[in-house]
Write a structure and sequence with these properties.
Elements: E1 3-7, E2 17-23, E3 30-31, E4 36-41, E5 46-50, E6 55-60, E7 67-69, E8 73-79, H1 88-95, H2 122-127, H3 131-139, H4 158-173, H5 212-227, E9 230-238, H6 240-257, H7 264-277, E10 283-286, E11 289-292, E12 298-300, E13 302-304, E14 307-309, E15 312-313, H8 321-336, E16 350-353, E17 373-377, E18 381-387, E19 390-404, H9 410-425
Parallel strand pairs: 12-16, 16-17
Antiparallel strand pairs: 1-8, 2-4, 2-7, 3-6, 4-5, 6-8, 9-19, 10-11, 12-15, 13-14, 17-19, 18-19
């Protein structure tokens, strides 16, 4: 029998590293080909990685919670069954679903010798930066060489950058003491002191350790607010006609198409039309200018037990209604089952979040960078509405839009929502694009 390594796979075109979140098998377990063996988290996807071989898991090389570059060995399988005839080199080649990035990033990190942080060279420090950490440092105008890393081999982590920023801000905000007025300013420490351990009253409090996904969400949301000036607006929409149509047609639609009829495909088609009228809502900010996207890759936010993930409906503006409904439902189901592929959560140009599913009536979402805007559909509520000189019970819904004020002004945002409002309120079966 031979053995074959399993390596950290390429989970997306721009992804250079992944975090082993949870091992689904333990050493000594027998694993079938394509059976999920480990959960891996990146800044784009949370996915179960299947074993490419059948055999016994003889070695787990990377502990849970460890972040490593693409291509690094994470486990070893002793081959059995049809795979037993594979030679080790062939097996190794078969594991590599995509080539690892060229250069130092593809090499497993080597522990640096113990010594002062100042001895780390600038090139070495930059090599230890992941794209997300480098982006965070650039946003705060930091030279990574000034920051001593606490990660493996002196690697600079997000926490190191954030601690450095916090120390710098605290130093700026601290009032000068009278006796120190004429003294030269003390240099800012390279790294903030380690935070004191959290004190928890065991009888009445509990410290819940952060999952990889929750920490990633926190960092993404913080970075989004720091990156773009968010503005927000809301409009109220009368969905009475659409509600009546869906109630009458949902069972027949399921029988004809094999999928549920929700409100999302109706909204997505109208939003795609609105984007064509107001293309800056489907763009990204760069230092060289605003990049307008001539296609619509619609991100649909899906809540899962440990966080939120946004699968992408590619070319949503080109899909017919039934295909759109099937695609949305399929992506949502596989997102909840952690079965999404890396490219299914990448490349979104606009995001839609159905916060109304939780009972929300108004929300202020945070933009999914580098997009220009994010739209929420809130709960549909029956309530009295003034119509002409009378009062009627109508199905009303709020739509909330957060947008990047560098790209979009309030007038454009209002016109965009107004377009959607008019189209949904005047909706008829003839509006469906098949």
């Amino acid at each position: 029998m031979g053995v074959a390594p399993i390596k950290m796979p390429q989970l997306g075109e721009s992804v250079t590293e992944g975090t082993v979140d949870r091992w689904l098998k333990k050493e000594g377990d027998y694993v079938k080909r394509d059976e999920p063996i480990v959960e891996v988290v990146t800044d784009k996807v949370n996915a179960e990685i299947p074993s490419p071989f059948e055999g016994t898991l003889v070695k787990i090389a990377v502990a849970e919670g460890t972040t490593i570059p693409i291509g690094v060995e994470i486990a070893v399988i002793e081959l059995a069954g049809a795979d037993a005839g594979l030679t080790a080199p062939t097996a190794s080649q078969a594991v590599d679903a995509a080539p690892a990035p060229a250069g130092p990033a593809a090499t497993p990190p080597v522990a640096a010798p113990a010594g002062p942080a100042s001895e780390v060279s600038v090139p070495a420090a930059r090599q230890r930066l992941s794209p997300a950490v480098r982006r965070l440092a650039e946003e705060h105008g930091l030279d990574p060489a000034q920051i001593a890393g606490s990660g493996e081999g002196g690697r600079v982590t997000r926490d190191d950058v954030l601690a450095f920023v916090a120390q710098r801000e605290a130093s700026r905000a601290a009032p000068a003491r009278p006796e120190a007025v004429e003294a030269p300013a003390a240099p800012v420490p390279a790294v903030a002191p380690a935070p004191a351990p959290v004190s928890v009253n065991g009888a009445r409090e509990e410290l819940v350790r952060l999952s990889v996904m929750r920490r990633s969400i926190a960092e993404h949301m913080t970075r989004s607010l720091a990156t773009s000036p968010h503005a927000w607006t809301l409009q109220e929409i009368d969905l009475t006609g659409l509600v009546r149509y869906r109630e009458a047609e949902k069972e027949g639609f399921r029988q004809r198409n094999g999928t549920a009829l929700t409100y999302l495909p109706f909204v997505v088609q109208v939003v795609c039309d609105a984007i064509k009228e107001f293309p800056y809502l489907n763009s990204s900010w760069t230092d060289d200018g605003i990049v307008l996207k001539r296609y619509v890759n619609m991100g649909i936010a899906v809540a899962i037990p440990d966080g939120l993930i946004v699968p992408v409906v590619r070319d949503a503006d080109r899909l017919g209604f039934a295909d759109l409904a099937r695609t949305i439902n399929d992506l949502a189901d596989r997102a909840r089952g952690k079965q999404l592929k890396p490219d299914e959560v990448a490349g979104g140009t606009f995001t839609l979040n159905n916060t109304g599913a939780t009972g929300s009536v108004a929300s202020q979402p945070i933009i999914n960078q580098p997009q220009a805007a994010i739209l929420t559909t809130e709960s549909i509520m029956r309530r009295p509405v003034v119509i002409g000189d009378g009062i009627a019970i109508r199905h009303m819904m709020n739509m909330c839009l957060s947008f990047d004020h560098r790209i979009i002004d309030g007038m454009t945002a209002g016109q965009f929502l107004g377009f959607i409002k008019h189209r949904l309120e005047s909706w008829s079966p003839a509006s469906i694009r098949l």
